[in-house]
TrEMBL record:
Its EC number is 3.1.2.4. Residues 28-348 form the Enoyl-CoA hydratase/isomerase domain. This is 3-hydroxyisobutyryl-CoA hydrolase. It catalyses: 3-hydroxy-2-methylpropanoyl-CoA + H2O = 3-hydroxy-2-methylpropanoate + CoA + H(+). One of its GO terms (biological process) is L-valine catabolic process. Keywords: Hydrolase, Lyase. It is an enzyme of class 3 (hydrolase).
Length: 358
């Protein structure tokens, strides 16, 4: 596209699109384009992606969809949490709920998408970024790939379909990831099935070009796949599977401290720093999520998120971690034992108003 001549064109500059959705040969190409914000999702981005995916689903010229993030730091670091917190604090919870409702509907669309959906993930992939990648058919991890679901550390919970996906990871690794927010690189992601392929970052351009030319995704990705080496998490898998098989968060922490190893102590310390309410919610999510289908998991998550703004931990967690960055959240309640079963159950109760329509 030609640039306007700054000497002759005095019209105001148009704001840059936050996501670019375009046809590229035989592919629909979605580029998250907020690199300065680590490509964090906004409601406008969710809506643009939904419109593009709906348009391409029945288009015979589009053989697959490719999703990528601009810049080298992040595929997508999550939803734009600060905007959501500002809306909640200002007494406009409907704005935040509109984002989550449409984001979750987008996640469900991706999970059932009728064409290959290829996420090219290089850099940070957390929260909402997981939601727009993990449920697609192909998750391609570059060398800078970094996965995490760190929500319990900001008084939130692992959403965007994590209730369904994490309990289905090998052993008890899903619960481990939900309660710790642990970060995984390429080798672990491939071993656990979070990624379907590991490729050199420099191969992304060639992969995209071949997909746009109409080549079959499985063949293209097989040509570029590489062994990322042994997964570091394997050294702790036996301990994770044993300890995280307990019946409560408190029992898991007790077992970790009883283990006596430095690795177990560090995991216990990590969990104990998280929001007690969020930990209880996440544990229950993983328990229920293992028994329900994807769409019911999304409806369950929307019930939880519809109540999250009524509490205090989400606001306090965002303040401590993302705004003031003092890393000293004051959780309420402050102890696991003070979070009642009744309080946890209330997050999961059916909504009086509209449920998620998936």
């Amino acid at each position: 596209m030609a640039q306007a001549n700054s000497e002759t064109d005095s019209s105001p500059a148009k704001p840059q699109a936050e996501v670019v959705c375009a046809r590229a040969g035989h592919a629909g190409l979605i580029t998250l384009d907020r690199p300065q914000a680590l490509n964090a999702l906004t409601l406008a981005m969710v809506r643009a992606m939904r419109a593009a995916l709906d348009a391409w689903a029945d288009d015979p010229q589009i053989a697959c969809v490719i999703v990528q993030g601009a810049g080298e730091k992040a595929f997508c670091a999550g939803g734009d949490i600060r905007r959501l917190v500002e809306a909640g604090r200002a007494g406009r919870p409907e704005e935040a709920l509109a984002f989550w409702r449409e984001e979750y509907e987008l996640n469900a669309l991706i999970a059932d998408y009728p064409k290959p959906y290829i996420a090219l993930i290089d850099g940070i992939c957390m929260g909402g970024g997981v939601g727009i990648s993990l449920h697609g058919s192909h998750r391609v991890a570059g060398e800078r790939y970094l996965f995490a679901m760190p929500e319990v550390g900001i008084g939130f919970f692992p959403d965007v379909g994590a209730s369904y996906a994490l309990p289905r990871l090998p052993g008890r690794t899903g619960l481990y990831l939900a309660l710790t927010g642990a970060r995984l690189k390429c080798a672990d992601a491939l071993a656990l099935g979070l990624a379907t392929h590991a490729v050199p970052s420099e191969a992304f351009d060639a992969i995209r070009d071949r997909l746009q030319a109409g080549e079959a995704p499985d063949a293209v990705l097989a040509d570029h796949a590489r062994d990322p080496g042994p997964p570091p998490l394997d050294a702790q898998r036996a301990m994770i599977d044993r300890v995280f098989d307990e019946g409560s968060v408190a029992e898991i922490i007790a077992d970790l401290e009883f283990e006596g190893s430095e690795a177990a102590r560090q995991i216990a310390k990590t969990i104990k720093a998280k929001s007690p309410t969020s930990l209880r919610i996440a544990f229950e999510q993983m328990r229920i999520g293992a028994t329900i289908d994807f769409r019911e998991a999304m409806r369950m998550e929307f019930r939880i998120v519809s109540r999250i703004l009524d509490g205090t931990d989400f606001y306090e967690g965002v303040r401590a971690v993302l705004v003031d960055k003092d890393q000293k959240p004051q959780w309420e309640p402050a102890k696991l034992g003070d979070v009642s079963d009744e309080a946890v159950a209330a997050y999961f109760a059916p909504l009086v108003t509209a449920e998620l329509g998936v």
